[in-house]
Design a protein that fits this description.
single chain; 87 residues; alpha+beta; 2 helices
């Protein structure tokens, strides 16, 4: 698991079998993140929608939300990484 934390939120990535789940949490009040190609923000979710096997969001209590996405990992993708670190 990998985690990062900033002043406004947190990021986590978890690998389970053939999927990687990525979560981004923040304290923003918006219930669902925007995704408008013509807007100044939110285009990242268009990429998420195109690349992820599935994605969504869950509310955080007392405030905020976590946006998550699950991305498929090709078979054998970890083999090269293990070879580089000598495992």
């Amino acid at each position: 698991m990998t985690r990062g934390r900033g002043a406004e939120g947190a990021v986590a990535a978890v690998a389970v079998l053939a999927l990687v789940r990525i979560e981004v949490s923040d304290a923003a009040a918006a219930r669902r993140p925007p995704s408008a190609p013509e807007g100044g923000s939110g285009r990242g979710l268009l990429l998420v929608d195109a690349l992820a096997a599935r994605w969504g969001w869950t509310p955080r209590h007392p405030v905020g939300k976590t946006v998550w996405a699950e991305v498929g990992v090709p078979a054998g993708a970890g083999d090269a990484a293990r070879a580089r670190v000598g495992r």
